[in-house]
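Write out the 3D structure for:
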Amino acid sequence: MRWGWGSLAVFFLAACDPFGEEPNKDIPEVGTQLSSLEQAAIDAGVIPDVRNMNLSGAFERRSDLGEDRFCAVGNDKHGYQIGLLAIFGPDSKCEAIGAAERVGESVRISLDGKEKCRIVASFDGVELQFPGDLPQSCKSYCTPRAALDGVSFYLVGEGDAVARSTRGREIEILCPGE
């Protein structure tokens, strides 16, 4: 049988399809059994338990340019109200409010105030990490020369009360609550 370049390309693309039928077995789903090594690390406090994570709280990241902030009020069952501020200098920033839902270690963020911006961030219980290649529409929440691509935040306080104290620049309170 003779394989042409087109046939080989289709074969390799099918073999590498990340959305194929077989899920990635290295990522535990919420509610699944963990290995004994993972359970020991959780028991020792080395890593958070992915099954018991909650996004509600205040997150920060400090740099020479300023203090980035993210907050989330709510829960996994009903979703979260979120707010964020990423600083890139005295006059350069991204600032927005929106909604989010957490599914395992993924956080689906929707910003709808200007253009629709959809972000699927990762959350390991300590760090919230945005992907490095966000849609162009997400730039509508930023001043020129600022972007949300690749931004990350670290949990500094858990719970709605802490989140409600998170301040922005133009948006006075990023997570005002209900």
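The chain has two domains: 5-50, 52-163.
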